[in-house]
Amino acid sequence: MFAFYLSIAAVCLIAVVIVKFIKSPETRGAKGETIVARILGRTIDGEQYVIHDLLFSDKNGNSCQIDHVLINKHGIWVIETKNFSGRIYGDARRREWTQVLAYGNEKNKFYNPVKQNATHIYRLAEYLDEKNIFFNVVVFLRRADISRVSAENVFDVRTLSVIKRRDTGLNLTPEQMQNFYEKLIKLKNESRITKKEHIAQIRDKRNKIRSGICPRCGAKLLLRNGKDGCFFECSNYPDCRFTKNLD
User: Residue 37: its pLDDT value, please?
Assistant: First the structure.
């Protein structure tokens, strides 16, 4: 009888572990990235080039993890995927966005994904020595209601495919597209940073912001007064465009 109850307890424990794994941010994030990867499609020489999970360190040792990069004749699309549910509130300038769940009874704050992705673009622009060919894209999976979000290029996953044909005014040649792709693939393959080290660096960047240090370039954050109130801006502007709302 003892063995029977022990086996039941073991099964329950395994079930709890499986449920926690399925609901973990890492698992949900991986699922979301898989869905977006399917929409973007595969690399087609001369037409589009796709890179997933680009993890690397810049020349200053700052780590960066990009969910997806799409290169086509219209530019380089840097894509951040969010597998959130509930109602999302936010705008392009605000440092934190809000996730509302349980009919308004639960509210969670998270870092503005547009700003998060702007840092990714800053790193890529520095590496490729290019500035005006990147487009910041944030995509939420269909469980999220983003009707209250006010920011450009924030998509519901069901409308993401429009970026593949959006006219940006750019017209990269097949040679340019392939050149950018080969450089980024080389960057990915030669990277020695691990995801564990990347997460540790994220925590360090948050501490820098609290201390008034720009997490992108290391310069001081200066207090500015704008039309929407006071905010912090990198002292290295316009080379670095990092900003932070005054909390």
Answer: 96
247's enclosing H/E stretch is none
Residue 80, beta-bridge partner list: 138
Contact between 180 and 70 under an 8 Å Cβ cutoff? The reply is no
Q: How far is CA 174 from the centre of its chain?
A: 27
Q: In what order do the strands lie in the sheet with 48-57?
A: 48-57, 63-72, 75-82, 134-140, 154-156
Annotate 103-115 with b (16+ C-beta within 10 A) or e (fewer). eeeeeeeeebbbb
pLDDT beneath 50: ranges in the chain = 9-24, 26-29
Compute the distance between CA of residue 200 and CA of residue 65 in angstroms, rounded to an integer: 13
Neighbours of 76 (CB within 10 A): 24
SS3 59: coil
